[in-house]
Every structure is written in C-alpha cells, then in structure tokens.
Amino acid sequence: MNVEKTIGKLALVLSLLVFGLSVFFILVELVNFYPDFLIDNKNETSFIENKTIDEHLPAGRKGQEIKYGYLLINQSPGYMGPQASSEQLRYTGNNLSCTSCHLDNGTRSGAASWVGVTKRYPKFRGRENRVSTLEDRINGCMERSMDGKSLPKDSPQMEAIISYMEWLGEGASDYIVQKHSGFTDIEISSYRADTLIGKAIYEQECALCHGNNGEGIKIDNKNKVYQYPPLWGHDSYNNGAGMHRVLTAAAFIKGNMPFGQATTEKPKLSDEEAIHVAAYINKYSRPIKNNTQIDFPDRKLKPISTPYGPWEDEFDSLQHKYGPFKPIADYYYQQYGLKKKK
Ligand code: HEC
Ligand code: HEC
C-alpha cells in the first residue's frame, strides 16, 4: 500500500538523518579534543617556531624595530639592564633576560610563549583587579621577574618589544595561539611539598647548570651575562614574581627542565617531583618587591600558592607557600564557586 511505502520511506530518511547527525557530532567532538585530527597544524607550527630574526624580518624601519625588540628580550642585561652603557637605559634590576623564562625567544609552547599574546590582551587580571593591557603585563615581569622598573608605555623599548611580539604571532591561527598559551598543566598537590626531596632532585637534575647554590653560570668572567641563569639569591627574580609561586614554577619546570631533556609533550619530572624541586628553589632568599600587600585588591583572586599575604582565607603562610594546595583550592570552590588552577 501507498501509506506503508510512504512510512517506510520516511523511516529510511529519518534513520539516515540520525546516522548522519551522529557522524557529524562525533567528528565535531574529535576535532574538539584532538585538533590535529582533521587539520594538519604541523607545518604551521614549525613555520612559526622556526621563524628567525636573520631571515624573515620585513624590510625597512619595521624590521629594525622588531630586531631591537628581539635584542631587548634576548640580551636584556646589556640592552635594558645593569650592563647597559648609560644609567638611563637600566630598567631591569637583575641579569636575567626575558628569554631566561620565555624560552626559544618566546616561541616555545609550554613556556608562557608570546606567540599570539597580542591577541590575548587587553584582559582582566586579578593582580591589578582591572583590565590590563599588554604593556601592563610586560611591566609586571619588568618589576618582578626582572626585579626592575616599569618601561614607560610610549618608550621606544616598549614599542619595540610589542612589535616583536606582534611579529611572532603574525598569521597564527586560533589553534596556534591557544597551543602557545601558558604552561603545562600540573595537578594541584594534596601533600606538603618536601624541600629535602626537592634538594635531592635539584642536585641530580639541576645543579650541573644552575650551580650548587642556585647562582647560575656566567658566559665568562668579564661579562655578567648568564649561560645558565640563577634560580635564587640577589640576581634572581624577586618574591613578587610568578615564578616564586610553587605551582607556577612547578608547571614551568615540568614542561621545560632539565633544559634539553623535558618538553611539554614529554616531561622528565613527575608532577610531584616538579613541585618538590620548585619548593626547594623557592625556599631561599631573593630580592624583595615593595608593596606586595596591595597586589590582588580582590583577595579572592589571589593564586593559591602566592606566598605573601594578605589572603581571603584562614590557611597559614606555610601552607600557601608549600601546600597542601588542594584544600585551599577546594575552599575557594565551595565558598565562591571559583575554580583555581594555580
Ligand atoms: C623569572 C621568569 C620570567 C622572566 C625573566 C620574565 N617572565 Fe614574563 N612571565 C613569567 C611567568 C611565570 C608568566 C606567567 C605568569 C602567570 O601564569 O601568572 C609570565 C607572563 C608573561 C606575559 C603574559 C603571557 C600571556 O600569555 O599572558 C608576558 C607578555 C611576559 N611575561 C613578558 C615578559 C617580558 C617582556 C619579560 C622581560 C622584560 C619577561 N616576561 C620576563 C616569567 C618570567
Ligand atoms: C642543561 C642545563 C640545564 C639543566 C640541567 C637545568 N636547567 Fe634550568 N635553565 C637552563 C637554561 C639554559 C635556562 C634559560 C634558558 C635560556 O636562557 O635560553 C634555564 C631556565 C630555568 C628557569 C627560569 C629562569 C630562572 O633563572 O629563574 C628555572 C626556574 C629553571 N631553569 C629551573 C631548573 C630546574 C628546577 C632544573 C632541574 C629540574 C633545571 N632548571 C635544570 C638550563 C638548565
């Protein structure tokens, strides 16, 4: 009968539709979880990561400005630090370079890369409790990681550094920008970091390059620039720096250290080992940043392992420095619905 035939056809069309839709959604999910599934990003990644200052700069003034930005971030002590020829040029306070932490000149994913960073700002930041520009963010590292002073926003140095960052991210897809953001994930610890275990790991995996006393190794004696940067002491990042938080340092270390052996995709240390060794390097004294009590005006937004108060909770300073961090994370989730990852 006609009615039966129509119903039969309808059923067929419907099942095809359901089947088609399922396949579609499965594909969408696959691409979500494994962006490499349909799109071949390997070429794009390697082009961006292998772009060099010597071969790929645009001609003319723009190229010169980018090159100057590169020298500032790669040879900071001489171009804007303690080794600069004139007093006025000395903005950074220690002899680190920006690239001591932002590895491979800011292109390495898993090391707070700058590829695409110009697209991530302005954005809200808890440390200032307002929308921050990229200039503010750079000055955050100037005053803390580099233990120095801010660069004026319209200075040639600031403009050059931003031009360099723009050039790094030129043409990068959203996938690349996302891939290069931040550090490797690390599991928030439910134990207290143990600096004795950290010391043993340090001696085995780190001291060869960073020195038994965390003092680093200079390229030569005349020149105060480091081949292997110091991890504590007077020439290191100050106590207000992100690297002074155990969870942030551990995430950096897990994906990048020991240098040449660990990558984001293939770390060498486990999460626990990275946390113990991060606690060990951060137990020593380092330069002190003034006015850290005014950081994070909304105290709820302070990262869990910020080792200086005041805090919006009752956990003591020892726990904020060494953990266990999980109870602190749980507290903020239960009280304020905040999911803190660091
Ligand atoms: C001692 C290590 C260290 C040094 C040196 C350092 N930084 Fe950073 N930088 C960090 C850390 C850690 C973060 C991420 C902090 C966080 O996750 O809270 C960061 C973040 C940034 C960001 C934001 C990245 C993003 O995706 O949001 C920029 C931009 C930046 N740094 C620029 C610089 C510049 C420019 C210099 C040199 C003037 C510099 N940094 C020196 C450790 C360092
Ligand atoms: C083979 C030498 C080598 C080893 C081993 C090594 N590092 Fe590094 N580390 C480096 C270099 C080189 C840099 C800076 C990268 C640059 O300047 O290009 C660095 C940078 C760092 C930084 C950020 C810069 C700073 O001075 O604060 C930290 C933190 C760090 N290393 C910790 C560790 C820890 C912890 C270990 C052991 C688990 C370790 N490293 C093992 C060579 C090494």
TrEMBL record:
Keyword Transmembrane helix: yes
TM annotation in the entry: 12-34
Cited SUPFAM superfamilies: Cytochrome c (SSF46626)
Gene3D superfamilies: Cytochrome c-like domain
Alphabetic keyword roster: Electron transport, Heme, Iron, Membrane, Metal-binding, Transmembrane, Transmembrane helix, Transport
Origin: domain of life: Bacteria
Pfam families, per database record: Cytochrom_C, SoxA-TsdA_cyt-c
Signal peptide bounds: none
InterPro entries, per database record: Cyt_c-like_dom, Cyt_c-like_dom_sf, Cytochrome_c550/c551-like
Cytochrome c domain boundaries: 193-285
Keyword Transport appears in the UniProt entry: yes
Name by which UniProt lists this protein: C-type cytochrome
Organism: Mangrovivirga halotolerans
